[in-house]
Write a structure and sequence with these properties.
Radius of gyration of chain A: 14 Å
Helix content of chain A: under 10%
Mean pLDDT of chain A: 97
Radius of gyration of chain B: 13 Å
Strand content of chain B: over 45%
Order of helices and strands of chain B: EEEEEEEEEEE
Number of strands of chain B: 11
Order of helices and strands of chain A: EEEEEEEEEEE
Strand content of chain A: over 45%
Largest interface: A-B, 24 and 26 residues
Oligomer: heterodimer
Number of helices of chain A: 0
Number of strands of chain A: 11
Distance between the termini of chain B: 36 Å
Low-confidence stretches of chain B: none
Number of helices of chain B: 0
Helix content of chain B: under 10%
Chain lengths: 123, 107
């Protein structure tokens, strides 16, 4: 059974930093592209970032480019999101999500999601 | 960036009704579209991929279609467990973009 468990969310002040983690199990982590998707309270889904199976390819939403950095540890099956220069409008539940097929970086959809971790940015 | 325009934003329906949700892409994306269902307090769930392919375990009352840049998700006979919010997402290019969501609630 695929399991994705996010952690690291908490209350942080504007301008601060936070690192989210997503521990994966139940599948061959190193062969699947991984994503972060967020959802502000009461709002819709917003795609944040993607990383390829091997880690060599990444992409970001314009809203986080230059402030967030995605990475992965394929030895320990963990996905990360480093979040710097946090703003009030980064407040959201952050989900990690797995690509449906292995090594399908360009066109993959998301077939498994974690339960999310809440990031609150406020003074 | 590809914009996804989803409609309606909400729909009230009864059990047994046929419900159709539409997503329009701002650029040609072929069949590169996924549909997700989200219930309150839960993570999204993949329903359809490649516009019209049913994800494993999803009931056959869900179907998808594409005509040009217009995509539809149809629930043929609404069941109590289908009351939720539905999102489309283009899977053609990065940055990925979602539609605004359609909330299906009880009439």
């Amino acid at each position: 059974e695929v399991r994705l468990l996010e952690s690291g969310g908490r209350l942080v002040q504007p301008g601060g930093s936070l690192r989210l983690s997503c521990a994966a199990s139940g599948f061959m982590f190193k062969t699947f592209d991984m994503n972060w998707v967020r959802q502000a309270p009461g709002k819709g889904l917003e795609w944040v970032s993607v990383i390829s199976a091997g880690g060599g390819g990444t992409d970001y939403a314009d809203s986080v480019k230059g402030r967030f950095s995605i990475s992965r540890d394929n030895s320990n099956d963990i996905l990360y999101l480093q979040m710097d220069s946090l703003r009030v409008d980064d407040t959201a539940t952050y989900y990690c999500a797995k690509g449906r097929r292995p090594y399908e970086y360009t066109y993959h959809d998301l077939d498994s999601w974690g339960q999310g971790t809440l990031v609150s940015v406020s003074s | 960036d590809i914009q996804m325009t989803q409609s309606p934003s909400s729909v009230s329906a009864s059990v047994g009704d046929r419900v159709t949700i539409t997503c329009r892409a701002s650029h040609v994306i072929g069949s590169r579209l996924a549909w997700y269902q989200q219930k309150p307090g839960k993570a999204p769930k993949l329903l359809m991929f490649a516009a019209a392919s049913l994800q494993s375990g999803v009931p056959l009352r869900f179907s998808g279609n594409v005509s040009g840049t217009d995509f539809t998700l149809t629930i043929s006979s609404l069941q109590p467990e289908d009351f939720a919010t539905y999102y489309c997402q283009q899977t053609y290019s990065f940055p990925r973009t979602f539609g605004q969501g359609t909330k299906v609630d009880i009439k």
